[in-house]
Amino acid sequence: MANILKSFAIEPREGGYRLRIETEGGVDFEFLASFDQLDLLAEDIDRQLDADQDPSN
């Protein structure tokens, strides 16, 4: 079963970003990501939201 997202934060770090995700169960995950990785993530999110919003789907 997937965890439910409670919150997330993105902070600049030297050479990249720190992505912090917290679940409703209180579990925290931290990832270091590059600009390119966050850019790909943002593009994927945008594509999914656009597809969900498209009335032809």
Task: Write a brief caption for the model.
The protein has 57 residues and is of the alpha+beta class.
Structural features, described:
The chain is α+β, with helices and mostly antiparallel strands and 57 residues long. It contains one helix and three strands, in the order βββα. The chain has a three-stranded antiparallel sheet with strand order 1-2-3. The longest helix has 19 residues, at 35-53. The relative contact order is 0.16. The mean pLDDT is 93.
Key terms for this structure?
single chain; alpha+beta; 3 strands; 57 residues; three-stranded antiparallel beta sheet; 1 helix
How would you name the oligomeric state of the polypeptide chains in this document?
Answer: single chain
Low-confidence stretches: none
- Return the string of H and E elements: EEEH
Outline: flat
Q: Fraction of residues in helices?
A: 25-40%
Tell me the structural class. Answer: alpha+beta
Distance between the termini: 26 Å
Strand sequence of the main sheet, in spatial order? 1-2-3
